[in-house]
Amino acid sequence: MTSILKSTVVALAAMTTTMTTAASAESYNANHFFAERHSMVRGPYVEFAKKVAEETNGEIDFTVFSAGSLLPPASSLQGVRDGVAQVTYHAGTYTPSELPIDNLIGNMAFYNTDPLVMAFASTEFGLTNAEQQAEWKANGVVYGGGYSTSEYFMQCNTPIRTLEDMQGKRLRMAGGAWSRFAEFAGAVPVSIPSSEMYTGLDAGSLDCAVAAADALDSFSLKDVVTDMNTLAIGNYYAGFEWGYNVPFWQSITPENRRVLFNEMAYYLGEHRIAFDKDVEEAVQSAKDGGMTVVDPDETLTNALAEFVVADEATLISTAKERGVADPEAILTAFKAIIDKWDGLLADVDTTDVDALAALARSEIYDKIDETTYGVN
Asked: What is the Rg, in whole angstroms, of the alpha carbon atoms belonging to the chain?
């Protein structure tokens, strides 16, 4: 065989190998119902997908669908179970009957309102608590990791300064404990998706949207909000930032599961830093446009404190009605994890993504066995 012929054969063989490898790589669906510009999508989904593809040599290639283009909010749990998406974000309050334990801990949003603490604590709980793990499994999802919004504030088209100002006001709430607080304070809770907050405020069917303040930009609320009260009405972390389809998870190699663990650890911290930065920029932009920002007066802070104490009994009774056997024990376990993370994060630079990722790996993800998690 001539040297030219040999070279041709080798080149053809290499081309065939490359084509075979490319053909064997599969593209998977990643779903989020927030827009791509949102901090919970930009890093944890768009960048995450790119890094996962790189680290797995293209064996896991996610196509990111945002803004509900693949699955609407209420269908994300069913969609990942049925394989419409291989990974998805899910807001737990859309499925209280299917996820009673998740909703129990998700309604503990007033126990500690530090978003970073709650993102890390809810992630550890979701990955390690036996009862919660059984709930994920029963719903056909492999839990990957959590998140937390920034603190929820009242963003209004009318001034809210005191508890009296809240009487009869129509407040968009995230359901659950948030709605109960509105009623406790004499307001009227309105349960609508975040995508409808702008329309409600603009049309006058809402007086306030209670949400993280990045919504001033990400949902354009600065165009219809004139006043914001900084009473910290909890923060939202129910459900999961990454929930995986079971057949998908079990089909990938343990090495690739470890890649996913490492990247989730990184973006658990990254999205929190990005989220708070977005809040800061959105609030400043809205203030520059004329929005008034006020701190809560004593009547509001006292009302919230009274509600937090009174509502735990409601959390427990509601969980029991939904079939949770021992909600008191679950809340005790979750509080212990929250308190643990309150201490751990006090000793780390919370503006350093790499430091947060290292802590998430050492305290959570490195303790999980990628050969058995989600498989057995």
From this structure: 23
| Alpha-carbon gap, residue 142 to 32, rounded angstroms | 16
Residue range 273-286, pLDDT digits in tens: 999 999 999 999 99
CB proximity list for 261: less than 8 A, separation 6 or greater: 361, 365, 368, 370
Distance in angstroms (rounded) separating the CA atoms of residues 305 and 184:
11
Strand order across the 141-145 sheet? 60-65, 26-31, 87-91, 239-245, 141-145
CA separation for the pair 316, 344 (Å, rounded)? 28
Q: Tell me: pLDDT of 118 over 80.
A: yes
- Supply the angle between the helices 115-128 and 130-138 in degrees, to the nearest 10: 80
192-251 pLDDT tens trace? 988 899 999 999 999 999 999 999 999 999 999 999 999 999 999 999 999 999 999 999
Return the amino acid letter for 291.
M
pTM listed for this prediction? 0.91
Contact 33, 76 (CB under 8 A): yes
Structure tokens at 307: 């509600």
Cβ–Cβ < 8 Å for 48, 267: yes
Report the distance separating Cα 342 and Cα 37, nearest Å: 29
If you search the block for the tokens 């977005």, which residue do you land on? 278
The two beta strands, 141-145 and 87-91, are unpaired
Which residues make beta-bridge pairs with 26? 60
3-state SS, residue 103: helix
Amino acid (one-letter) located at 188: V
Strands 227-229 and 152-156: antiparallel
- Are the CB atoms for 210 and 183 separated by under 8 Å? no
Task: Collect all residues with Cβ–Cβ distance below 8 Å to 26 and sequence separation of at least 6.
Answer: 59, 60, 61
For the chain, domains (ranges, CATH) are 26-148+237-276+311-367 (3.40.190.170), 152-234+287-305 (3.40.190.10)
Strand 87-91 to 239-245 pairing: antiparallel
